[in-house]
Amino acid sequence: MIEFSDVTLTYPDGSNRVTAVNQVSLTAVAGTVTCITGPSGSGKSSLLALGATLIQPDSGRILINGTDAGGLSTKDASALRREQVGIVFQQANLLPSLTALEQLTVMNELGTQGARARRPAAGRRATEILATVGLADQAHKRPHQLSGGQRQRINIARALMNRPSILLVDEPTSSLDQERGSQIIDIVLDLTASEGTSTLLVTHDTSHFARMERVVEMMDGRLVDTHARAARSAKSDET
Ligand SMILES: Nc1ncnc2c1ncn2[C@@H]1O[C@H](COP(=O)(O)OP(=O)(O)OP(=O)(O)O)[C@@H](O)[C@H]1O
Ligand SMILES: [Mg+2]
Questions:
Q1: What is the pLDDT of residues 192-222, one digit of tens each?
Q2: pLDDT tens, 79-97?
Q3: Is residue 44 within 6 Å of ligand 1 at its C-beta?
Q4: Around ion ligand 2, which residues have CB less than 5 A away?
Q5: Which residues, including other chains, have CB under 8 Å from residue 209's CB and lie 6 or more apart?
Q6: What does the alpha-carbon distance between residue 73 and residue 79 come to, in Å, rounded to a whole number?
Q7: Cβ of 43 less than 6 Å from ligand 1
Q8: How many CB atoms lie within 10 A of CB 58?
């Protein structure tokens, strides 16, 4: 699980500082998707970058499975990120020369010792997760031979290769049409359930809001509106 407690982040802005995240408290628990919406510049990506330990907050605390991410050295933060956090950015950033399967297996070769011994297991995991996102029959294609939606599926599969407990997904559907975008959100929901990740998903795609644990809205760095699933389903019963 990932827990933000009273987290504030500012960036330098000329002689001042701009507050991107303002006293945000938010928790995502295992096996659920917490959705973050809000206008451009409201701090959504900054919040995910904090959760990914890519930047440190000015104040407040971020706990990742009980570990205080703020107290870690750069080395420990990158180990935590590698082992526990899966990150999906808006653009897939796949390597042009690698096949779909290799985009995943290459994750095993990065960073840690003992890659060779882990190769058979990594190959099995890659095949399994590629099938889960519906690309079993595209495993040997390179990015230029795949559609935008297929590339985004690989992006998501790659983020899950190392079995992270936290999944952070930033606007995965923005370059896709409604139908393909909706399929991507569906995959994020399914994988969150099957892999048991604590997922934070930034999206404006409302097609699957009902299946999300919580939908929160950011405005000028603050969480202004949050709807838990129980409250939303009670509301929809009224109408
Ligand atoms: N590296 C940075 N340096 C300075 N200011 C930044 C930096 N990154 C973001 N900001 C500012 O922080 C605020 C929040 O930006 P952020 O990217 O988190 O918003 P967002 O909600 O993800 O927007 P979008 O929907 O457009 O992706 C904005 O005012 C932005 O200009
Ligand atoms: Mg953003």
A1: 999 999 999 999 988 888 899 999 999 999 9
A2: 899 899 999 988 888 999 9
A3: yes
A4: 45
A5: 35, 215, 232
A6: 10
A7: yes
A8: 14
> For residues 81, 83, 87 and 91, what is the CA-based torsion angle, rounded to 10 degrees?
100
CA 44 to each of CA 138, 189, 218: distance values in angstroms, whole numbers, following the listed order:
33, 19, 7
Q: Which residue has the tokens 């949050």?
A: 226
The pTM (predicted TM-score) of the whole model is 0.93
* Ligand 1 pocket member 217 (CB < 6 A): no
> What structural domains does the chain harbor?
2-93+165-238 (3.40.50.300)
pLDDT at site 226: 82
For a substitution probing ligand 1, which of 8, 21, 45 has the most ligand atoms within 8 Å of its CB? 45
| Burial (Cβ within 10 Å: 0-12, 13-18, ≥19) of residue 116 | exposed
Atom of ligand 1 nearest to the CA of 45: 22
